[in-house]
Amino acid sequence: MDNIYEYNGIKYKLKKPDLGVLHKASPLLIKYRELIYKYSAGIDSSQLLCAENEVIILKEAIEEAEAEIPVNEESLNKLKQKLIEAEKLLNAPPISQLRKHLAEIDSLALFEIITDAEFISGLFSDILVSAEGARVKFDKNSFSEIDSIEFIKNVITDFFLSVQLPAVK
Fold first, then answer.
1. 31 and 113 in contact (C-beta within 8 Å)?
2. Are 75 and 61 in contact (CB under 8 A)?
């Protein structure tokens, strides 16, 4: 991914995502997780997680049943009916409202991060270079304008899409 970002007439690109860059970007993940925890503490999301897991399990079971030779149509139809019921539960008002509320918390946490000019300036000094590959240095005043939000969102989104961090076990 070699996206070029223009901000205030200067072109930038992401550094190659090596271990050093990932390490320097880890405070972003830490801050994001802390904010999610802060804003969602006290919210019982067990019903949502249970409903989502049920849908995932049923979809996997349907795939397995469809792969069987010969296909047991009766069993497959029962699984498909259970999936319809599970998706109805997942989309029922209490659970869908909870999902919407958690998505809003996610957005709020991201907004808090991208509007923290001091934090973003340090992060971007670590993960961006000029379009020619030269080192860049930002300070908190670099992102004082409202139009910086779109630039920040694009860089952060592309950064995480480019690294596709695997789960650490």
1. yes
2. no
pLDDT bucket at 164, cuts 50 / 70 / 90? low
**Model confidence at 69: pLDDT above 80:** yes
> What are the distances in angstroms from CA 124 to CA 24, 49, 96, 167?
10, 34, 36, 24
143, 152 contact by CB (below 8 A): yes
Contact yes or no for 127/155 (Cβ under 8 A): yes
Segment holding 128, helix H or strand E: strand 128-130
How far out from the chain centre does Cα 90 lie?
Answer: 21
Binned at pLDDT 50, 70 and 90, residue 169 comes out as very low
Q: What is the largest CA-CA distance in the chain?
A: 66
Q: Residue 11 is which amino acid?
A: K
Find the DSSP H helices in 41-168: 46-67, 73-90, 93-114, 117-127, 148-163
Instruction: Give the integer Cα–Cα distance in Å for 106 and 102.
Output: 6
pTM: 0.73
Distance, in Å, from the CA atom of 10 to the CA atom of 75, rounded to the nearest integer, reads 60
In the prediction, which pLDDT does 159 show? 86
Which position has the token pair 């910086």?
Answer: 148
